[in-house]
TrEMBL record:
Pfam families: Acetyltransf_3 (PF13302). This is GCN5-related N-acetyltransferase. It comes from Streptomyces pratensis (strain ATCC 33331 / IAF-45CD). Belongs to the acetyltransferase family. RimJ subfamily. The keyword Acyltransferase applies. Residues 2-160 form the N-acetyltransferase domain.
Length: 164
């Protein structure tokens, strides 16, 4: 069973392993992070933790009992009671409901702990799995967009006290 945890310094090795192991899998449906992401991981991780402490973003991992990262669910661009949601699940853990569970948990944290009132998300048109997760977790389509040259959709979700 995976547990949602707020990103911590000690997650770095498992998170890097997760990103490396799933790089090709992720690149099939979302833009690749590029080689610089991996070569500068430790510095980037420390910077994200600093930004998280300042309330600019909220990063989470879905970790297995042994600390293996199976996914991540993040809130970025936090401002004026709103944030952008992003998530990714390891190939070996896909199709088990982890994304849906993680997004639901982060929506609850967004209200209860982070004081947010709305979330945004985007996905490409051909990413049917991501579109299904967003629909199951209360996001509604809000328009078309382009993601790295690919057609996509923009979604929004109003958060309420019932999300706690």
């Amino acid at each position: 069973m995976a547990v949602l945890e707020r990103l911590r310094p000690d997650h770095a090795p498992a998170l890097l392993a997760f990103e490396r192991e799933n790089r090709a899998y992720f690149a099939a449906s979302i833009p690749d992070r590029g080689d610089d992401y991996f070569s500068g991981f430790d510095v980037r991780h420390a910077g994200l933790l600093t930004d998280q402490a300042a309330g600019m973003l909220h990063f989470h991992v879905l970790a297995d009992d042994d600390g293996t990262v199976l996914g991540r669910v993040n809130l970025v661009d936090v401002a004026d009671g709103s944030a952008s949601l992003g998530y990714r699940i390891a190939e070996r853990a896909a199709g088990r409901g982890l994304a849906t569970s993680g997004v639901r948990q982060v929506c609850a944290l967004a209200v209860a702990d982070y004081g947010l009132t709305s979330l945004r998300a985007m996905t490409t048109l051909d990413n049917t799995g991501s579109r299904a997760v967003l629909a199951r977790t209360g996001f509604v389509e809000a328009g078309r967009t382009t993601l790295s040259g690919r057609p996509g959709l923009h979604f929004t979700r109003r958060l309420t006290d019932a999300d706690r």
